Amino acid sequence: MQQATNNNNQHAIISPSSTDADADDISSIDSSISSKDTNSVRSFSARLAYEFDNLSMKSDSASSAVAAASDEGSTSYMRYRNRKLIRVDSDIGDDEERIFLFEGLLAKERSKLWDKMQFWEDVFLDAVAMERDAVGMDQGPIDMIERYRALNPSEKKRLVDEEDRLLSTMLYNLISFMVMMNVECKEIMRKVRRLLGKSHVGLAYSSEINMLLDNLRSLQGVAIDLKPCGSRHIRKQSFVVHAGTDTNGDVLFMEVCDDAIILRTGFGTICERWWYEKLINMTFCPKTKVLCLWQRKGHETQLNKFYTKKCRELYHCVKEAMEKAAARHNVPDLGGEFPVQDLKTGECGLLQVTLDGINLKFVNSQVFLGLKTIRKCNNVDGIFLLEEYSKLINY
User: Fold this and answer.
1) Angle at CA 195, nearest 5°, toward 190 and 200?
2) Pairing label, strands 290-297, 84-89
3) Number of C-beta neighbours around residue 212 at 10 A
């Protein structure tokens, strides 16, 4: 019955040659529409008005009737995709019925909750908080601020763009959900633009939101394609590890990400995060299946040991991620330079940590130790012990 009503309304809009009898039939049908269908009829008329806005109004009544008859049997509809309003053909067959979740929420009686703008603002804030937690932006804010200050301008811009992309994606999907629930366009524009100003989103991403708002009156239902969250795009590999040197330690999940190693508890909470530029050394033992990570923490060196059955795979995974991060940041020396003193000769020099090994520079000599020749390194009472397979050197 609703489809028949929409078809009659379509003829009433675009056919100027309707007879008086047809007008009486149309008015009788319009009077039989219940108050619950007012929104759907209004949105349907708005969509038709947009579809036929570019048609010439100077055509005769015969051509208008033909156009009306052809559009009546059409299964295409308008969608907003890639910043453009396009017409797409329906992929639903004649014998197929597709029901969306939002249609079930609007089937019997539409709740007044969908018209409360504070509810949608709370949804946006909760979604942003969950997404930031999923990508690790809320863990260790002081450490992240210090790292941000130490980055070069290009890396700072990359982090700002990631934050803007997260906020704009959440706002974009919020608009789509509000359109599904038949929220008034005026209220959507007012609330979204207010949230856009509070979020301080840059021009590159705010222009996309404003462009969607400009085409909002021509969209309804599922006409806006949802965007995937940034947490789904993070390329990471997860390994099950035990804290310590055996299986008696706590079970943890080590995630190897693009710029850091994230350590999560069994409940998924982030407990540690080590940036690659702060990792000094990494070794593993195939026999004991223990991975050792040395990181710079202030003026001290911290050693962390983890037991895992996939020790070799984890080592090569971290090494590959560090090499990609170094190529992206254009930083050849991940560990930096450290002033050292040879205990045997008393000569002062520099210890450089690179991807290929450790380089020792002194006034009269220079020694390079490849990663394959280093057996292990350790820190005992301020003395850095570097052990090779052939000899033992103290610094």
Assistant:
1) 130
2) unpaired
3) 21
How does pLDDT run across 316-340, given as a tens digit for each residue? 999 988 888 877 765 444 557 788 8
Q: How far apart are CA 51 and CA 59, in angstroms?
A: 16
* CA distances for 318 relative to 80, 252, 261, 304, 309, angstroms: 41, 16, 8, 15, 15
Eight-class DSSP state of 299: T
Residue 245 gets which letter from DSSP? S
Is residue 45 classed as helix, strand or coil in its secondary structure? helix
Per-residue CA distances from 196 to 166, 192, 220 (Å): 12, 6, 22
Pick left, alpha or beta for residue 295 (phi over 0 → left; psi -120 to 50 → alpha; otherwise beta): beta
Contact 14, 67 (CB under 8 A): yes
Based on the number of CB atoms within 10 Å of its own CB, is 79 exposed (0-12), middle (13-18) or buried (19 or more)?
A: middle
In angstroms, rounded to a whole number, what is the distance separating the alpha carbons of residues 248 and 380? Answer: 26
**Pairwise CA distance, residues 387 & 373, whole Å:** 9
Of 4, 118, 23, 10, residue with least CA distance to 64 = 10
- Cα separation, 51 vs 90, in Å, equals 16
Over the stretch 340-390, which tens digit does the pLDDT of each residue have?
Answer: 888 888 888 888 887 778 888 888 888 888 877 887 777 777 787 888 876
C-alpha distances out from residue 100 to 103, 109, 225, 227, 310, Å: 5, 16, 14, 17, 44
Looking at the chain, how many residues does it have? 395
